[in-house]
Amino acid sequence: MTQQTDIRRVALSLAAAGLPVLPLRLGKAPFGNCHQCASNACGGRPNMKAAGPCRCPRVCHAWAAATTDPAVLTSPAWTATWQRAACVAYHPGAARLTVVDLDDAASVAWARETLPATRSVQTTRGEHWIYRGIMASHNAVRPGVDIKSTMSYARYLGPGTGTMTALPDAVRALAVKDPAPVRPAPHAVAVPAGAGGGECRHRTPAYLDRGIAMAEQRITEASSAVHATVYRTFLAVLSTHGRCGCLTDTHVTRLFTAAQTKGETLRHCTDAWTNARTTLGL
Question: What's the per-residue H, E or C state across 226-275?
């Protein structure tokens, strides 16, 4: 049995467990775009900025190519890529996970003193700490520490040890460069200048619920271009409610559920939400 056969077998096993996977070449880097997808010619996600899907059958778009579909993973194009692969990677964000990549002994010692314990995986020089929950990915949040979640990939190095726990605020805080001062939540929130004055309508439950219901309806009634409709709907919701702290996990779950009912995968929902936040600078 060849190393490549073992790599693909691991990938299929992970995919069956719900972890979107992709092959990496030597140097722990993803395979590059094919000629048809270079320079965004495919209209897909090179650099993962555009919203539309790419239908290229090859492993062309780094973390955005990660999949759990066995038909894709065993397709001729992917089979040829597995033959050249050095290892398996996965997209943590699509699996609702965040990996804190600790690159050396010093960062591991810091994590043990600072972060809640969770599942850990040994790496060449340090450890991966894996939490349940997603956030934006960030490199070098402190010496020897990267955060890999949405729009990123992490090498699969084994199941690890320990019980996976929820993503803590201490990890989210690592990505905040200039945290705003903490203030008590007021009962009435002033609307920014130019927005009409008065109390923030987003704090009115009926207004927010009506907006979420309308977004669900827009997705549910889409008869074509579902992926584009989901992205535009997420963009509209975030442009209205994304900056005032009104959205909760319950609201996001409602939107994701509506999209998945229309056939969208969790990966596409996560990508569309992340792309919308990126577009709006959130």
Answer: HHHHHHHHHHHHHHHHCCCCCCCHHHHHHHHHHHHHCCCCHHHHHHHHHH
Residue by residue, what is the 3-state secondary structure of 42-102?
CCCCHHHCCCCCCCCCCCCCHHHHCECCHHHHCCHHHHHHHCCCCEEEECCHHHCEEEEEE
The SS3 call for residue 191 is: coil
Closest C-alpha to 64, from 39, 98, 94: 94
Threshold 0.70, pTM exceeds: no
The pair of structure tokens assigned to 90 is: 């996965």
For the segment 105-164, what is each residue's pLDDT rounded down to a tens digit? 999 999 999 999 999 999 999 999 999 999 989 988 999 999 999 889 999 999 999 999
Look at residue 147 and give its three-state secondary structure.
strand
Residue 274 near residue 150 (C-beta atoms within 8 A) = yes
Residue with token string 């003193």: 113
Q: Which residue shows structure tokens 């199941």?
A: 159
β-pairing verdict for 119-122 and 127-132: antiparallel
